[in-house]
Amino acid sequence: MIEYLKYFVLLYGGLFAITNPIGAVPVFLSVTHDLSWSERREIATKTAITVVVTLVVFALVGEWIFKFFGSSVDAFAIAGGILLFKMALDMLSGRLSTVKISKEETEEFSEEVVTLEEVAIIPLAIPLISGPGAITTVMIYMAKSHHVSEKATVVASIAAIGLTVWLILCSSNRIQRKLGRVGIKVMTRMMGLILTSMAVQMIINGIKGAFGL
Predict the structure, then answer these.
(1) For residues 47 and 169, what is the distance between their CA atoms, to the nearest angstrom?
(2) Is residue 112 a contact partner of residue 80, using CB atoms and an 8 Å limit?
(3) Which of 43, 151, 161, 169 lies in the 20 to 30 Å Cα band around 127?
């Protein structure tokens, strides 16, 4: 039980750093600036649900994707590590990774008239929160989980991330008031530092597995 709890904390911490929901607060506020609190809560709910569904689906079908494209888990781990490292460098600079969403895309969605469903799914859930880095990570962790309890732990960590995303987005106004833009940038840099170590370790594990070291 303790081992699975440690595994859950490891997965949750890693996914929190990758998804970086606190860093998504300014984008959430910019695309919902003219909406009521109830509408923002509705968007937060749909965003969190989309994040969970997206990550769970890719976690479950990841093994078949590897087989379909003839790719090994280790090769995917190396590629994923490089992707995460690029994201981490952007986050260490205090900005949202362009791997997730560009500044032009953010401005485009803040200026366009879109439905609540469109805002919740794109750009908030995909690719801002459950972007390529998060999808790659859950696919690799699920592929390396050999027991049902381990796979259930991966799904549980995704569900916990969804709940965290919902809580943070619903509290976005208070978070921005408390932390301010500087505080959010500091938090993003901290997540970037954690993500850097994860990316390097993922590459090392991938190289070890590929070459049988």
Answers:
(1) 9
(2) no
(3) 151
Residue 113, pLDDT score? 46
Give the contacts of 72 (CB within 8 A, at least 6 positions apart): 66, 209, 210
Q: What tens digit of pLDDT does each residue of 27-82 get?
A: 898 888 778 889 899 999 999 999 999 999 999 998 788 888 888 888 888 988 89
- Please report the pLDDT score of residue 100 as a whole number: 57
Q: Which helix (H) or strand (E) holds 82?
A: helix 73-92
**Residues 16/161, Cβ–Cβ less than 8 Å:** yes
Closest to 69 (Cα-Cα) out of 154, 139, 18, 152: 139
| Residues with Cβ within 8 Å of residue 124, at least 6 apart in sequence | 24, 27, 28, 31, 43, 47, 50, 169
Spans in the chain with pLDDT lower than 50:
113
Alpha-carbon radius of gyration of the chain: 17
Enter the tokens of residue 197.
């170590």
For residues 26 and 106, the answer to whether their CB atoms sit within 8 Å is: no
Contact 103, 26 (CB under 8 A): no
Token pair for 206: 């991938």
d(CA 185, CA 154): 28
Domain ranges of the chain: 25-208
Task: Give the model's pLDDT for residue 115.
Answer: 66
